[in-house]
Specification:
The chain is α/β, with parallel strands linked by helices. The chain is 28% helix and 23% strand. The structure holds zinc ion (ZN). Zinc ion is lined by residues 67, 69, 322, 324.
């Protein structure tokens, strides 16, 4: 080149001097990004158009939160507090770069209609996204829509076995499991024994026991444990892969472990709230307990210890937020029926997108319960693999999307709602002290959050279609003499 002319930078972005962590390794490396993709990991990289100094910082794969309810119509008086603009901002504020949300078929409605409406809402997202298809009415016409939608990349299904208006029968669940197996989609299940909950609830109401804390009384662990056992049996009989959502304590996790020990493709997810909240939080005064009201209900310290043990043993490898935001005082929120409303009228769910990674880092890595690669696996890599997004998402490797978090492992933060950047009016994590906080969140090479400020516009995110993948292929093993999905002898 002629004298005096500076060479064009080799990279769009270089993150230098950081400690890179993946689900398997921790190493010192600079990361070179070009056109949204990691193109180099090395120690003598050339110049970047933008350079970030990550001295003393970790550089982690952006979080993949595979269970988030953002801008999902809930029906009735309850209003989801987030649009995709606010939900994705909150995710980025906490280091998450990919969310899997839900396109929910209403009863009597088409499935494609639900997916298209949700794609339109998600167009505002600042981070990347995909959907699980919720089937609340898996009639033959709805099931007939699945081959096309799954082929377009909507490669996971969700069913509820409880909640009026959403739950399906066991017979319908078997039809969904069979469809998922045939078409190459993972079925995710909300597993609680509906009639047992209804029986408890009726008795509680009759006895005048309707405070927020009685929500936990309505659904003791046996309600979940029985249903987790049942869905594992259904998955075994149909040789259908499943993920059980929000495993909340020891007894349910033991059911997952037993299924895995028999070689079944059964995975269990837990959520941040089950590791830090207990049923006692539902008893906070002045209706504050309603902020912790979710399903399953938060359980006991013993259950938290059991979940950490199951995480250590690798039984549970995915920790999500189950972000389900309703405001406290605002429209359609927790107090929509007043501050003395019975628990049966309080919207379920807790917000948690932004705090998932910081709380897990602090409670897990800083407190010595898990190591750094396990943290990366729990917050990014496993979910990316389980839902067919890996290696594009969930790791730092040449060829992967440059979804990166620069993480300050020593920063001490007292969580307060202004840090969360969502559309809500509170966080149930208010006042919790954590060590470790994200400093910068990058999605496909573009900074979305820098020093707590959201810097990417609405719409930076893109839909992630998912191709067929090995992890959820059926085993081809049936417990009996007959393959009931294809109707042939085995
Ligand atoms: Zn959920």
């Amino acid at each position: 080149m002629p004298n005096g002319e500076t060479p064009l930078p080799a990279f769009d972005l270089v993150i230098r001097n950081g400690t890179v962590a993946t689900a398997t390794d921790v190493f010192a490396a600079d990361i070179g990004v070009k056109d949204g993709v990691v193109v180099a990991l090395g120690q003598v990289l050339g110049a970047g158009a933008r350079e970030i100094d990550a001295t003393g910082r970790l550089v982690l794969p952006g979080g993949v939160d595979s269970h988030t309810h953002i801008d999902e119509p809930r029906g009735g008086p309850t209003v989801n507090a987030d649009t995709f603009a606010t939900g994705s901002a909150s995710a980025a504020a906490g280091g998450t770069t990919t969310v899997i949300g839900f396109a929910r078929q209403g009863r009597g409605e088409g499935v494609r209609q639900a997916v298209e409406e949700h794609l339109a809402r998600a167009a505002k997202s600042r981070i990347d996204y995909s959907f699980h298809i919720i089937l609340t009415d898996p009639n033959p016409a709805a099931l007939a829509e699945l081959p096309g939608l799954i082929a377009e990349g909507h490669r996971s299904l969700k069913i509820f076995l409880t909640y009026d208006g959403a739950r399906i029968t066991d017979g319908e669940a078997l039809e969904v499991l069979a469809a998922g197996r045939r078409l190459g989609a993972l079925t995710c299940i909300h597993a609680e024994h509906h009639e047992l909950i209804a029986f408890h609830t009726k008795a509680l109401v009759a006895a005048g026991l309707t405070l927020p804390k009685h929500h936990a009384w309505a659904k003791p662990m046996v309600v979940e444990r029985e249903c987790v056992h049942r869905v594992c049996a259904m998955a075994e009989a149909l040789d259908a892969p499943i993920q059980v959502f929000h495993v909340s304590g020891g007894e349910s996790a033991e059911e997952i472990e037993r299924a895995q020990q028999r070689g079944l493709k059964v995975w269990g997810e837990t959520c941040t709230q089950y590791l830090v909240f207990t049923a006692d939080d539902l008893d906070r005064p002045d209706f504050e307990g309603a902020k912790f009201l979710c399903s399953p209900a938060p359980r006991s310290r013993e259950d938290q210890a059991a979940l950490w043990e199951m995480i250590r043993r690798g039984v549970i490898q995915n920790i999500t937020s189950d972000h389900a935001p309703t405001r406290f005082d605002g429209p359609g929120g927790k107090t929509v029926f007043g501050r003395d409303a019975p628990f049966t009228k309080v919207p379920n769910g807790v917000p948690g997108l932004a705090v998932r990674m910081p709380v897990l880092f602090s409670e897990g890595v800083v407190k010595g319960r898990i190591d750094l690669p396990t943290f990366v696996n729990l917050t990014a890599t496993h979910a990316a693999k389980l839902f067919g997004l890996h290696p594009r998402k969930g790791t730092i490797a040449v060829g992967s999307d440059a979804d990166l978090v620069v993480w300050d492992p020593e920063r001490r933060v007292t969580i307060t709602h202004s840090l969360i950047q969502d559309g809500n009016d509170h966080t149930p994590y208010e006042g919790m002290e954590v060590t470790g906080w994200p400093e910068m969140t990058v999605v496909r090479g573009v900074p979305v959050m820098e020093a707590g400020r959201i810097v990417a516009p609405e719409g930076h995110g893109t839909f992630l279609p998912r191709a067929p993948y090995e992890m959820i292929k059926p085993r081809g093993i049936f417990p009996g003499f007959f393959n009931p999905v294809d109707g042939v002898a085995v």
